[in-house]
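Entry 14. Structure prediction run on the chain below.
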Amino acid sequence: MSDRRDGEPTEDGVPEVDGGHAATTPSTHTVRLELADEPGQLLDALYPIADNGGNLLSIYHERGNKTPRGRIPVEVDFEATQDRFEGIVEALRSEGVNVMQAGTERYAEEVTLLLFGHLIDTDLSDTLSQIEACESASVADVSLAAPQGTEESSSARLRVEARAGETETALAAVRDVAGAKGLRVVEPLVGVEA
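Output returned:
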């Protein structure tokens, strides 16, 4: 036990907290939320961040862009210590905010691809959820086209974000899900100049 106050630097310069060393320097964190398109939802989601010591850096909110469940995706960047970050995520979830993703690592690469086949019959929502289950990938946008109705083949344009250097892993996840459901994937051409 130390007689120092929490957060006061020790001789080695690392702050001591509760008798042990812990990093108390805030770092940047990103949470991806899914909000209902109703007045006050964004503000309700920001309170738990501020109330738990998060310092807001940016909010990306594109109201015209909907998730597969018809909600609005919102990405919030803020600074907080790791302990406060965990408290913020817990507070968001306890307030009923759907936290789709939370972490310090942002998705840095993006690819657009097409899926063809019986997307609706094979449960498009499940397809997207399985892609999202891959830690390397996140579905940022979906556009579905079913000109012949739900009984015929349809197509979807997916904008998939991948962690830096993990685009191939993300694409492999899409290929696996598509293969299991009998869907065809049209991937972007890589290394070809237009």
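The longest helix spans residues 167-181.
Filed with the rest of this week's runs.
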